[in-house]
Amino acid sequence: MKKCRKSDIVVILCIIIAVAVIFFGCWLKLGKVQTQPVDATVNSSTTETTAAQTTAEEKVSETTTETTTETTTENTTKEESTYAYAYAGFDPVITDTTVPFNRLLVNRDYILPENFELNLSTLSEIGSGEKLDSRVAPYYIKMFNAAKAEGIILTPVSGYRTYDRQKINFENRIAVYQNQGYSKAKATDLAAQVILPPGTSEHNAGLAMDIVSLETSFENTAAFRWLCENAADYGFIMRYPKDKTDITKITYEPWHWRFVGIEMAKDIKSSGKTLEEYLGAYESF
Ligand SMILES: [Zn+2]
């Protein structure tokens, strides 16, 4: 029994070894065969991924280029249209000139377009030849005559001003502050508080008249009191009131009267609003 068992064990071991060798051989062979295609698959797959990545990168690159180009274009456009006084923080948008002319908003944030056209009338009978928009001039003359009948002379001091005249006035004022030692930017900012930069003044639109005097003391005159009482009846408003300088962004100017039409002038007068507030433009500042 012992011999029999021993030989059986030897046979079984031989069989196991033989099977093991065969399996090992097959495994090796299969391994080689399989390894190459797997690698190839991985490689090709990698290549595809790389290709895909490259394509994606190219796309990203293209997109980036496009974006950059667009941004550059925008910047270029912005730079081309940059206002001459941008160095002092001025960045006015072009005002909407399609509104009825009496509602036209012109201030340091809303500039007239370069091609702004207007018809002017000269106040030849009164003052020294000041001009206003031809639709406004008849109202001024009517107001002038009404005041005159009450012994008040509303001398027109400064009506329509050209862009170039406004520019000269503005730059003269900048020079005054620069001579006082202020930097160019600070001098420009200070100048803008007393005279608006070119293109941003209602005088450039022919819609406003400076009356009698350019001194704050004008508020103590009978002419000023008459205007406060009656100007709205002729379509004019005091544009830069004393208590609204934070909104108008310009000093109190009792002499500057803007035409907005009789109905609107009365509304504005009774509401105590500025034109910016009345037109709902204040929030966008
Ligand atoms: Zn004025």
Q: Can I get a quick summary?
A:
With 285 residues, the chain is an alpha+beta fold. The protein has helices at 2-81, 137-148, 163-179, 184-192, 222-230, 245-248, 262-271, 275-278; strands spanning 93-94, 110-111, 120-122, 131-133, 156-158, 208-211, 236-240, 253-259. The chain has eight helices and eight strands.
Q: Give the name of the CATH architecture of the largest domain.
A: 2-Layer Sandwich
Q: Radius of gyration, Cα only, in angstroms? A: 42 Å
Task: Determine the structural class based on helices, strands and strand pairing.
Answer: alpha+beta
The name of the CATH topology of the largest domain is Muramoyl-pentapeptide Carboxypeptidase, domain 2
Strand segment count: 8
How do the SSEs run, as a string of H and E? HEEEEHEHHEHEHEHH
Largest β sheet strand count, sense and barrel closure: 4 strands, antiparallel
Helix content: 40-55%
Cofactors, ions and other ligands in the entry: zinc ion
How many individual domains? 2
- Mean pLDDT across residues: 80
What's the assembly state of these chains?
Answer: single chain
Going across the biggest sheet, name each strand in turn.
Answer: 5-6-8-7
CATH class of the largest domain, please?
Answer: Alpha Beta
3D shape: elongated
- β-strand percent reads 5-15%
Low-confidence stretches: 28-81
Q: Could you describe the 3D structure shown?
A:
- The protein has 285 residues and is α+β, with helices and mostly antiparallel strands.
- Helix content is 51%, strand content 10%.
- It contains eight helices and eight strands; from the N terminus they run H-E-E-E-E-H-E-H-H-E-H-E-H-E-H-H.
- The protein has helices at residues 2-81, 137-148, 163-179, 184-192, 222-230, 245-248, 262-271, 275-278; strands at 93-94, 110-111, 120-122, 131-133, 156-158, 208-211, 236-240, 253-259.
- A four-stranded antiparallel β-sheet has the order 5-6-8-7.
- A hairpin with an 8-residue loop joins strand 3 and strand 4 (131-133).
- Helix 3 packs across helix 4 (184-192).
- It is elongated.
- The protein binds zinc ion.
- The site of zinc ion has 4 residues, from strand 6.
